[in-house]
Write a structure and sequence with these properties.
Layout lengths: L1 E14 L4 E9 L7 E12 L6 E7 L2 E9 L3 E6 L12 E11 L7 E14 L9 H12 L2 E2 L57
Antiparallel strand pairs: 1-8, 1-9, 2-7, 3-6, 3-8, 4-5, 4-7
Length: about 210
């Protein structure tokens, strides 16, 4: 398989009495670091109504990938995962782990649920199955591992030219060299505020 994306999901929860959690996330052993083109860990926080502001650090296999301070994280956060941080295995599954360490100034008890989704972009990976033809083997692998076609969004070509957000063809590029831990009230898909959104057009056809 090549140029596709595999998704692995699990869930967990933390609270004032369980401030440190380690959540296992197994992936197929044939996904070695050199097979991985990109990887993103999406975490969806679902805090209960009585959750208080607190601090947190997120690590992937012991390597820090994100943090927050004096916040109540809610909604989706996305973290880039370096391929070099993935654990290897000779066969079967390679066990990855997400560590979350939280600090709670308030002693009151509360719970926050977390959902994890690890999206792994594969450049090229090889696994073996028994089949009577190459096509049948490909079908078995797809059914087993569900590797979807990868697509990279190009903002220079995939935004409708008449969009007010693209400014037609007179674009000025501004580079932001800052780490964004969470998008707050902004949509991570359309980059719009939930209170006042600007209509966005996407390019269709050719």
């Amino acid at each position: 398989m090549q140029n596709c994306t595999m998704t692995f999901e699990t869930e967990d929860w933390y609270c004032t009495n369980r401030p440190t959690i380690v959540t296992p996330l197994p992936i197929p052993a044939f996904l070695a670091p050199e097979s991985i083109a990109s990887a993103f860990l999406n975490i969806v926080y679902s805090p209960r109504s009585n959750v208080q502001p607190h601090n947190g650090t997120i690590s992937f296999n012991g390597s820090p990938v994100g943090s927050y301070s004096n916040q109540i994280p809610a909604g989706q956060f996305s973290f880039n995962i370096p391929a070099s941080s993935f654990q290897r295995s000779v066969a079967g599954t390679a066990l990855q782990s997400v560590q979350m360490e939280t600090e709670h100034p308030n002693r009151g008890h509360y719970v926050s649920a977390t959902g994890y989704k690890l999206n792994v972009g594969i450049s090229q990976a090889t696994t073996y199955v028994c089949a009577d033809s190459s096509a049948a083997a490909q079908q078995i692998v797809q059914q087993q591992y569900a590797c979807s076609a990868a697509y990279a969004f190009n903002w220079q070509t995939d935004v409708y030219p008449g969009s007010v957000n693209s400014g037609g063809h007179n674009k000025t590029v501004t580079r932001l060299n800052a780490k964004i831990d969470a998008d707050g009230n902004f949509s991570n898909i359309s980059c719009t505020n939930d209170a006042a959104a600007t209509e966005i057009y996407t390019k269709t056809g050719s």
